């Protein structure tokens, strides 16, 4: 199948402008002489509002808010600014001393340790560590979401006479547990709330290439890639 032919299908026309934008963006994939693959997936939309853990989220946010206020109260910016100034002055004095004695070295060591304790406040470390755990708790017990299911697969022929879908790894499970090593795209059949996840794979040749999982959002009539995480590399 050619790209022009797939663009005429009802499947493609639903989100043609988005698909076209991605395909045009990654010309290294779409212009491969041996062709490329386009998968389409769907994901069951389940109502998760009744998830019990959400009843505790106000309490979780309250703990996070308290930790943030504790960090602010430590006034770390002032301590760091003052600390680096004191360290700079102290060190400049040490290096400018043409007659360093044991007292000077020991005094310098003592002052550096004192300033270090002020700048690297132990209480700050514990509060930051606690804040990190409290924030991660928002993700810890989220409901399990359904896996994307591949529904359609198309091989787009390239310019090479040897263009063949056997050049790429096309076998993929019905559930998308991980992105396949491929030269191509995995597109959503539906775009939900002006955002979607896609997978891309660039395989210039055997045993070389890389893939990514990307979150795209539509903002002011313009699609933007919000996050891109590597899924495979060879």
Show the helix and strand layout:
Elements: H1 3-7, H2 10-13, H3 16-25, H4 27-30, E1 36-42, H5 57-73, H6 76-96, H7 102-119, H8 122-140, E2 149-156, E3 184-188, E4 195-205, E5 208-219, E6 222-233
Parallel strand pairs: 1-3
Antiparallel strand pairs: 1-2, 3-4, 4-5, 5-6
Helical fraction? 40-55%
Strand order of the largest sheet: 2-1-3-4-5-6
- Computed Rg: 28 Å
Gap from first CA to last CA: 28 Å
- Find the structural class using helix and strand composition: alpha+beta
- Domains (count): 2
Q: What is the number of helices?
A: 8
DSSP, total strands: 6
Mean of residue pLDDT?
Answer: 89
- Largest beta-sheet characterization: 6 strands, mixed
Strand/helix succession: HHHHEHHHHEEEEE
Categorize the overall geometry: elongated
Low-confidence stretches: 165-170
